[in-house]
Every structure is written in C-alpha cells, then in structure tokens.
Amino acid sequence: MPPQIKRAKEHKKMTGALSKNDEVITTGGIAGKVTKIDDSFATVKIAEGVEVQVQRSAIGSLLPKGSVKF
C-alpha cells in the first residue's frame, strides 16, 4: 500500500474517533480543545471565550492531553 494511502486511512480513522475534550491542531496550525462535534464539523475552543467551527477533515492531528492551556 502506498504511503499516502496509508496516511489518508490513518487520518480518516483519527478524525472519525474525535471526541469532546480532545486537544487538536488544525491543518492551518491552530491548536485548541474540541468542545462539540457532529458528523461534519467540530467546534474547537482556541482561547478563553473564542470557539471556531472547522470541518472534521481540517483537524490535522491530536495533541497529548494538557498541551493546550487557556
């Protein structure tokens, strides 16, 4: 299996398993904590009182718990 297909499958698995309170970094480089999630979008808290809504596919990776500080 080519590496890019393997990476795509891993990314799809990771975005499918997202849950509330996961700490993530978006493909745009914004770090935050997931506060709400539905089939297509995730709401990510990026600062105190600031939340953004992003497509699930725009979540680049998970961060270790405690990485994001507000």
Characterization of the model:
It is a single chain. With 70 residues, the chain is of the alpha+beta class. 20% of the residues lie in helices and 40% in strands. It has one helix and five strands. The chain has a five-stranded antiparallel β-sheet, covered by helices on one side. The N and C termini lie far apart (41 Å).
Descriptive terms for the model:
globular; single chain; alpha+beta; five-stranded antiparallel sheet; 70 residues
Topology:
Layout: H1 3-16, E1 23-26, E2 31-37, E3 41-47, E4 50-55, E5 59-62
Number of helices: 1
- Note the run of SSEs as H and E: HEEEEE
Uncertain parts:
none
The average pLDDT is 95
Class of secondary structure makeup: alpha+beta
Q: Biggest sheet, in brief? A: 5 strands, antiparallel
Number of strands: 5
End-to-end gap: 41 Å
Helix content: 10-25%
Rough shape?
globular
Q: Write out the strand line-up for the largest beta sheet, numbering strands in chain order.
A: 4-3-2-1-5
Q: What radius of gyration results from the CA coordinates?
A: 12 Å
Question: Approximately what portion of the residues adopt beta-strand conformation?
Answer: 35-45%
Brief summary of the model shown:
The mean pLDDT is 95. Strands 4-3-2-1-5 form a 5-stranded antiparallel β-sheet, covered by helices on one side.
